[in-house]
Amino acid sequence: MSKYYIGLSLGASSAIESGVAVLQENGELSYVDKLFSVNDVMYFFDNFPSIKDSSILVSLPWDNAMLNGKWRVLSKPYQLIHENQLFLNKDNWMQRFSPRGSDYLYKLFEKGIDIKRFEIYLTRQKLNLYSNYKERSPADCKFFQSALKLNYGFKDMPGNMIPAAQLEAIAGALLAREYKNGKTKRIFEYNGLDVINIV
After folding, report:
1. Which of 185, 195, 173, 182 minimizes the C-alpha distance to 4?
2. Considering Cα of 14, then 167, then 60, then 33, what sign does the dihedral take?
3. pTM for the whole thing?
C-alpha cells in the first residue's frame, strides 16, 4: 500500500506554472508547491525520499502550439485525435496534448515507480470538483478550492486563493488515492503510460 499520493499538474511550457501536491495515507496534505521547468520536476522526484512508496499521477498538459486558422483554434479540443481524415493535419493542429516531460516520466516508470497520467477536466468531473465557470478563471478557482475544503475535508487550506496548478495537483493526488483503492480504470495510453480515471 502506498504511503503517499502525489499529484502533478504539468504546465504546457515553462512559462506556465506546474503544481505538485503530496497527500498522505491519512488524508492530510503534507506538501503543495509550484514548479516551472522540467528540471524542477526532475529535481523534485529525484529528491523525494519516499518515491518508491508513492503513487504518482501526472496531468496531460494541453498543446498550446500556435495555429494559423481561427476554426482550428476553436475546434481543436473537439476533434478526435488523429482520426478525422477529412481535414489536412497541417502544423499538427489536431494534437491535443503536449509531450512535455514524457521521456523523464517514462524513465521513472521503467525504474518501477508507480506512475500514471490523468486528464484534469475529466478528473474534476468525476471528483465533483467541476464548475460551470470558465476553466482557471477566478470564479472557477474559488469554486474548486471551496469544493476541496467541503467535499474532501481539507480544512487547513488558506483563506486566500491557491494557484490553479496547485488545486489541479491536489485533484491528481486524490485520483491517485482512488487508483490505489481500485476505483479507477484505464481510458487510453499516452507516450507509454496509462491514462486513468474513476470508474
Report:
1. 173
2. positive
3. 0.87
Per-residue pLDDT of 64-120, as tens digits, reads: 765 666 666 666 666 665 555 555 566 665 677 888 999 999 999 999 999 999 999
Q: Are 118 and 60 in contact (CB under 8 A)?
A: yes
Identity of the amino acid at 1: M
Alpha carbon distance 192, 189 (integer Å): 6
Cα 60 from Cα 197, distance rounded (Å): 12
Q: How many residues does the chain have?
A: 199
Q: Are 183 and 198 in contact (CB under 8 A)?
A: yes
Residue 115's DSSP bridge partners are 56
**What secondary structure does DSSP assign to 50-72, as a single string?**
TGGGEEEEEE--B-----S-HHH
32-64 as b/e: b if 16+ CB within 10 A:
bbbbeebebbbebbeebeebeebbbbbbbbbbe
Give the DSSP H/E element, type plus range, for residue 141: helix 138-152
